[in-house]
Q: What sequence folds into this?
């Protein structure tokens, strides 16, 4: 069980770890975007909005919907906090924040605060795109092996 702040930190790490899979994108930019969204993110979590309205990360072939659970469901659910594969060749990412009715203005203000944040409806996932192309950035792997 986590506080809203602790839950936001876990979500921010998941987003940053996933974006970091791309050799074209910066983990720091993802961290900055999530920091800009943190105040409204904690509100979305505390009010239970992320149980039904996910944060959506779109980066390369990744279309990741992030939700939360609370109450007794939080005690029995097994979470997976591993970076999501598929962002290897991405050169752009967007974090879509859900704008539920009571927090629409706060979400819009957060989205206006960073270029990688949006309060728009996320695009539908492309099933075919998710199954095509490499999941590993081979060039980044070569560089890592070469540095050993």
A:
């Amino acid at each position: 069980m986590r506080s809203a702040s602790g839950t936001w930190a876990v979500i921010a790490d998941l987003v940053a770890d996933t974006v970091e899979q791309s050799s074209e994108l910066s983990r720091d930019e993802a961290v900055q975007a999530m920091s800009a969204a943190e105040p409204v993110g904690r509100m979305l979590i505390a009010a239970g909005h992320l149980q039904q309205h996910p944060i959506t990360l779109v980066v390369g072939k990744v279309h990741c919907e992030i939700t939360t659970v609370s109450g007794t469901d939080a005690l029995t659910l097994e979470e997976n906090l591993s970076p999501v594969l598929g962002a290897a060749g991405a050169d752009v990412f967007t974090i879509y924040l859900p704008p539920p009715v009571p927090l629409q203005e706060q979400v819009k203000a957060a989205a206006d605060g960073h270029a990688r944040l949006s309060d728009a409806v996320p695009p539908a996932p492309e099933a075919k795109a998710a199954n095509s192309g490499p999941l590993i950035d081979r060039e980044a792997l070569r560089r890592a092996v070469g540095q050993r």
User: Anything to note?
Assistant: The chain has six helices and four strands.
